[in-house]
Amino acid sequence: MFEGASTLSVDAKGRISIPTRYRDALTGASGGMLHLTRHFNEPCLLLFAEEEWGRFRERVAQWPASDAWAKRRTLGHAVQVEMDAGSGRILIAPDLREAARIGKEAKLLGNGSHFELWDKELYGIKETHAEQEPVSATLAGFVF
What we know:
By secondary structure, the protein is an alpha+beta fold. It has 6 helices and 8 strands; from the N terminus they run ββαββααββαββαα. The mean pLDDT is 92.
């Protein structure tokens, strides 16, 4: 389970270094082979270990025809990336960086089975707007 948030620098070639606390789990789960793709309805990227990507890809393939664009966006932009064993770096393809508007700093968010990767500034804007929205009825009834 991946959780937590990290701010990452994006180098001139479009590479980020996966935080050390996640590297062993990603290497163990996938030998360092990861999948990166566009989110189906948010301006961010999704990052999966190889094994989890296979499960996610199967679920996406079953989406109804009415969600064809979301399926196309998610599966059509997927790329396999290899995490560098020494530095933990991965390369984010230029078209994916552009789609997610990722600049010089990114926000990596653990989301259970995978990560979301956002432009840091854009994530801050979205988070501020979300804090101003009312909580859904489902969450309003959530008890700790």
